[in-house]
Amino acid sequence: MSLLKLANVSKEFPVGGATRVYALDDVSLSVDAGETLAIIGESGSGKSTLGRLALRLIEPTHGSVHFQGTDVLALPPAELRRLRAKLQIIFQEPFESLNPRMRVADIVGEPLAIHQPNISAADRRARVSAVIEQVGLAPDMARRYPGELSGGQQQRVGIARAIVTRPALIVLDEPTSSLDLSVRAQILQLLADLQTELGMGYLFISHDIHTVRYVSDRIAVMYRGRVVETGPSERVFADPQHPYTRALLAAALPVDPDQELPPARLVGEPLSPTQRVTGCVLYGRCPVSEEKCVQIDVRLAPIDADRQVACVKPGAPGS
Ligand SMILES: Nc1ncnc2c1ncn2[C@@H]1O[C@H](COP(=O)(O)OP(=O)(O)OP(=O)(O)O)[C@@H](O)[C@H]1O
């Protein structure tokens, strides 16, 4: 059974009058224990909306969200709070997500106080100390305030707070993009080590191809609220099929001469997020689109046992 399963999820934000932002459109995905599914796509493609939806910080307009087989959207508030111990989130800006007036030990211990109020103060202190050490912070950091720490140390505190309740899944929303390159590598290594140790699933949101390539087992490539390609990362990186994936990878990485399809370069301008799209979302920017792409409903379809692509003609010439 998947840890997290989103089925046919859509999210529309009303933005005045009858106007809506179509942030997510019919997205289905799952994350298993111990694996990292990376969500990649340019700004505004719907990545953060997806992450917030997975935790029910916002609710979808359509579709379902299941966590360990439980219908998350049907949970009453008390049970949703209980589930949050198993389903955590780490944000991009560690400092903004940490209360500047609380000491590190209290920040890390807070989820325990909420989710496991019956454990003794001594046990809680012991758990907090162990987790602080587990994320590579010196014991004396426990007494400090977030403002006294570096960006990398602050993110370690964010990670400690997320793992203290032993979650099964963590949503990581651009967890390293505010960090320097060298610190970024250390935090990614820490996240990988913790995943091996604790067997957590990660939903890893990023717009950075290099980070995604390093961390992910599978990827889902998003454009304008839809997943346009998904599969095992190694294979998607080696042989991208969707014109958007081909353009995204070609802009950031040297093109592998063995890949089946040539790289693509996007043309034109993106559609407004308030425009409802019935055909292909890349129409107008796609170098291989045809008249029919504006009309037909191009959804993800399997191209083999574990890859799916939303394009009727990924291999078209002229790209
Ligand atoms: N509360 C909201 N009200 C209105 N529109 C919203 C809201 N939240 C997100 N959006 C819009 O939904 C779309 C998807 O946004 P989202 O933040 O999920 O994208 P993203 O891929 O995470 O982008 P970024 O990398 O810039 O964070 C965007 O057009 C955004 O402006």
UniProtKB/TrEMBL annotation:
Protein name per the record: Peptide/nickel transport system ATP-binding protein
GO molecular function, one term: ATP hydrolysis activity
Organism: Micromonospora yangpuensis
ABC transporter domain span: 4-249
InterPro entries found in the cross-reference section: AAA+_ATPase, ABC_transp_ATP-bind, ABC_transporter-like_ATP-bd, ABC_transporter-like_CS, Oligopep_ABC_C, P-loop_NTPase
Gene3D superfamilies: P-loop containing nucleotide triphosphate hydrolases
Pfam families referenced in this protein's UniProt entry, alphabetically: ABC_tran (PF00005), oligo_HPY (PF08352)
UniProt record similarity statement: Belongs to the ABC transporter superfamily.
Alphabetical keyword list: ATP-binding, Nucleotide-binding, Transport
One GO process term, biological-process aspect: transmembrane transport
